[in-house]
Automatic annotation (TrEMBL):
It comes from the Bacteria. This is Hydantoinase/oxoprolinase family protein. InterPro entries: ACX-like_C, ATPase_NBD, Hydant_A_N, Hydantoinase_A, Oxoprolinase-like. Residues 507-673 form the Acetophenone carboxylase-like C-terminal domain. One of its GO terms (cellular component) is cytosol. The lineage of its organism: Bacteria, Bacillati, Bacillota, Clostridia, Peptostreptococcales.
C-alpha cells in the first residue's frame, strides 16, 4: 500500500533541468535543479528525480503522475537534425515547400537567407488527385499509381513520410486512402497525415507543420520510448508530456504529433504563473520567463492566456494550437559582443549549459549577462545553486574587460551596458505583446520567473512604469511547477468560411456539435470521467475581404444569436485596432478546447508573521550603481522570509534557484503563499 502520492513536473531547458515534486496529501513541495544533459535529455531527468526521491524518501511506485516539458523536437528543428523525409502532395504542388509565401525573411535585409528546405526535390512526389473547395472529390486517387510511387520512396531509404493534399482539411478521404497504402507498403516509416494534424486552411502552413512533424518524428519517438522505459525502471508509470497549448497529452500522442511539443516548456511557465496569481486575485499578467538561453514573454488578460494557431519555429510557419508566447535570445547565458560599428550588442547567441558563462569556469570565455551581474554585485561572486555551482569572478572580469577594451569603456560601465542592452531588448518585446495588441503594460502585474527573471524584474518595472511585480516562491522552477497544475487538454479546430448573418447561429451550433463529438471521443480515449470534463469555445473571425483573422473567445451560455457573435468580434477588434466598421463579418475557424480537469496541488496559506524581515538578513554586498558609486545592499535568505515580511530596497534576496534584485524606491511584501510582491513606492 502506498504511503504517499507524489506528483512530479520536469522542465528541460537549454541550460538547466528543473524538477518540482509535490505530495498531493500534505502539500510538501520538493525542488531540484541540475544542468541539462546534452546528448539525451532523459539522463538529467532521471538523475534529478533520483536525487529528489532520495532526499525526500519516496520511490517510483508512490508517483501518481509524471509531467514533462521537453525541447527535443524544438532542438531538432533548430539544429536541422531530423529524419530523411519524403513528401507526397497533390499534383502541381511539389515545389510549394520551396516557394512558400514568396516573402523575404526580413523586408529590408537583402542579404537574409530563406530557411533551408527540409526535403530535397528528389524526395518530393505528386499524386494525381483533386478535392474542390467544398470538399468534394473531383479526381479520385489511382491506387496502382500510388503503389508505384511508394516503391520509389522505399528505394530512396526515407525514414519518414509526410502527406499533404490540397483541401484535405475539408475532406480527408484521399489522405486516408494514402495512409492505408503507405502503412501496408512501408510499415516501418514514421507517417504524418496533414488532416490528422490540422483541419485548417492555408496549405503552405499546413504543409510546413506536416513536414516538420515527420522530420522530427523518429527522433522524438526514440526519446519518448527511451524515457518511458527509463522511468519504468524506477517504478514511474503514469507519464504525460506538455502540449504547446498549455495542457498535457499522453506519451502516445506526443509520439504521433511531436510538433505539438514545439513550445512545451514555455507554455508550462505561463500556466504556472496563471495558477499562482489566481490564488491572490490577479488576472491581468505579463509573464516573463528568463532562463539561461532565452526570454519567453506572454500575456494573460482577464484570467485567460492569449492563444494562437499561427507560430513560427526556426523560420518555419506551423499551425498548431499554442499559447501565444514571444521568444527572444536574451537569457543569463546570452553573450555580449561588439558589432562592426563599435556598438555593444547582447544575444541571441548563448553560452548555453556547456561551456556556460565565463564565471562557471567550464571553458567559456565570452562575456555573458551572468558575468555582468557577478561583476556588478547582483549575483553571488562565490557560488550559486546553494553552493553546488562554484563561481570564479576573475573569469567574468577578464571576459568583460575584453569587451570594454574594444569600445574604450570602463570595466563596470561595460557590465552595466550589457544589462541595459538586454533590458532594452526585453522591453521592446514586452511592448510587442501588450501595446501592439491594444494593452497598456502599466495596467498589468509583471510575473517574473526563470533563473534570471527576478534579477530583471525591478529594472523592467522602472523602465516601463509597471506598478507591481510578483516573484513566485520558486521562480527558477515555475515551469516545472506549472506542469503540476496543468489539465489534460486538446484543441479541435475546423475551417469553414461562413459569412455572419441572421442564420449563422444555426451553422455555429452545427459545427460546434461536430467538434463536441470529436472531443467526447478524446475524453473517452483518455478515460476522463464526465464530472471532470470542460469545453472552451472560440471562433477565428475577420471582416470579409481581409486575409487574416483574430481569435474571439465565446461564452456559449451568453451567446444566443448572431448579434452576440458580432458584438464579441467587434469588442476584440476594437481592442486591437481601436476602430470597427459595419462591413460584412466572416467566421473562418470554429474551435473548442477540451479540458480534462485534474486535482490541483495543495497549497497551504502561511500564518501571518509581521512585517519585520530582519531575521532573514544573512549579510550584505557592495553593488555598483554607476558613475563610480557603490552601495551596500543587505542580503536576505528567501527561505527565511515569512508571510507579511517587508523587504525595502535596495536589497538582494537569494535562494537556491534564483536571485531577486530590489531597487531603491521599491519594496517587496511576502504574501500568504510566500510569493514576493514588489511594488514601486510613491
Amino acid at each position: 500500500m502506498k504511503n504517499r502520492s507524489i506528483r512530479i513536473g520536469v522542465d528541460v531547458g537549454g541550460t538547466n533541468t528543473d524538477i518540482c515534486a509535490i505530495d498531493e496529501y500534505s502539500g510538501e513541495l520538493m525542488v531540484y535543479k541540475l544542468p541539462s544533459s546534452l546528448h539525451d535529455q532523459s539522463d538529467a531527468v532521471v538523475a534529478g528525480i533520483k536525487v529528489v526521491a532520495e532526499q525526500h524518501r519516496f520511490d517510483g511506485s508512490e508517483v501518481s503522475r509524471f509531467m514533462h516539458g521537453t525541447t527535443v523536437a524544438t532542438n531538432a528543428i533548430l539544429e536541422g537534425r531530423g529524419a530523411k523525409t519524403a513528401l507526397i502532395t497533390t499534383g502541381g504542388f511539389r515545389d510549394l515547400l520551396e516557394i512558400g509565401r514568396q516573402k523575404r525573411p526580413d523586408l529590408y535585409d537583402l542579404q537574409a537567407d530563406k530557411v533551408r528546405t527540409l526535403i530535397n526535390r528528389s524526395l518530393r512526389f505528386e499524386v494525381e488527385e483533386r478535392m474542390d473547395y467544398k470538399g468534394q472529390v473531383v479526381r479520385p486517387i489511382d491506387r496502382f499509381a500510388v503503389r508505384e510511387l511508394l516503391e520509389k520512396i522505399k528505394d530512396s531509404g526515407a525514414e519518414s513520410v509526410a502527406v499533404m493534399l490540397l483541401n484535405a482539411y475539408l475532406n480527408p478521404e484521399n489522405e486516408r486512402l494514402l495512409r492505408e497504402e503507405i502503412e501496408e507498403a512501408l510499415p516501418e516509416v514514421f507517417l504524418t497525415i496533414s488532416s490528422d494534424l490540422s483541419k485548417q486552411f492555408r496549405e503552405y502552413e499546413r504543409l510546413c507543420g506536416t513536414v516538420l512533424n515527420s522530420f522530427v518524428g523518429p527522433e522524438v519517438k526514440k526519446y519518448m520510448n527511451n524515457l518511458k522505459e527509463t522511468l519504468g525502471k524506477i517504478g514511474i508509470q503514469n507519464a504525460y508530456i506538455n502540449h504547446s497549448n498549455g495542457g498535457l497529452m499522453s506519451i502516445a500522442e506526443s509520439m504521433q504529433f511531436p510538433i505539438k511539443t514545439g513550445l512545451s516548456g514555455p507554455a508550462a511557465g505561463v500556466v504556472g504563473a496563471q495558477y499562482i496569481t489566481a490564488l491572490i486575485g490577479e488576472e491581468d499578467l505579463i509573464t516573463i520567463d528568463i532562463g539561461g538561453t532565452s526570454t519567453d514573454i506572454s500575456l494573460v488578460a482577464g484570467g485567460r492566456f492569449e492563444a494562437s494557431d499561427e507560430k513560427t519555429i526556426s523560420g518555419y510557419p506551423v499551425r498548431i494550437p499554442a499559447i501565444d508566447i514571444s521568444t527572444i535570445g536574451a537569457g543569463g547565458g546570452s553573450i555580449g559582443w561588439i558589432d562592426s560599428g563599435k556598438i555593444l550588442k547582447v544575444g541571441p547567441q548563448s553560452a548555453g549549459a556547456n561551456p556556460g558563462p565565463a564565471c562557471y569556469d567550464l571553458g567559456g570565455r565570452e562575456a555573458t549577462i551572468t558575468d555582468a551581474r557577478v561583476l556588478l554585485g547582483h549575483l553571488n561572486g562565490e557560488s550559486l545553486l546553494a553552493g553546488r555551482l562554484p563561481i570564479k569572478k576573475e573569469n567574468s572580469q577578464a571576459a568583460v574587460q575584453r569587451l570594454a577594451e574594444q569600445i574604450d569603456m570602463e570595466l563596470l560601465e561595460t557590465a552595466k551596458g550589457i544589462i541595459a542592452v538586454s533590458n532594452s531588448n526585453i522591453v521592446k518585446e514586452i511592448k510587442n505583446v501588450t501595446v501592439a495588441k491594444g494593452y497598456n503594460p502599466s495596467d498589468f502585474c509583471l510575473v517574473a520567473f526563470g533563473g534570471s527573471g527576478p534579477l530583471h524584474a525591478a529594472e523592467l518595472m522602472e523602465e516601463m512604469m509597471i506598478q507591481k511585480a510578483l516573484i513566485p516562491k520558486t521562480p527558477g522552477l515555475l515551469a516545472a511547477y506549472g506542469l503540476l497544475t496543468e489539465n489534460m487538454r486538446r484543441d479541435f479546430v475546423q475551417t469553414k468560411v461562413t459569412d455572419l448573418h441572421g442564420d449563422s447561429f444555426a451553422v455555429l451550433r452545427k459545427e460546434f456539435c461536430i467538434l463536441e463529438t470529436e472531443a467526447a471521443a478524446w475524453f473517452d480515449s483518455e478515460e476522463i470521467p464526465a464530472e471532470k470534463r470542460a469545453l472552451e469555445y472560440f471562433l477565428d473571425m475577420r471582416y470579409k475581404g481581409q486575409n487574416h483573422e483574430i481569435r474571439v473567445p465565446l461564452d456559449m451560455k451568453e451567446v444566443k444569436d448572431s448579434g452576440a457573435i458580432a458584438e464579441a468580434f467587434i469588442k476584440a477588434y476594437e481592442r486591437l485596432y481601436s476602430f470597427s466598421t459595419d462591413d460584412m463579418m466572416q467566421i473562418v475557424n470554429f474551435g473548442l478546447s477540451a479540458v480534462g480537469d485534474i486535482v490541483y496541488p495543495v497549497i497551504t496559506e502561511e500564518e501571518f508573521a509581521g512585517s519585520d524581515a530582519s531575521n532573514a538578513i544573512i549579510g550584505s554586498r557592495w553593488v555598483y550603481q554607476g558613475d563610480g558609486v557603490f552601495a551596500d545592499y543587505p542580503l536576505y535568505d528567501r527561505a527565511a522570509l515569512q508571510n507579511g515580511n517587508v523587504v525595502k530596497g535596495p536589497a538582494i534576496v537569494e535562494q537556491m534557484d534564483s536571485t531577486t534584485l530590489i531597487l531603491v524606491g521599491q519594496k517587496a511584501t511576502v504574501d500568504q503563499y510566500l510569493n514576493m510582491v514588489i511594488e514601486r513606492e510613491a
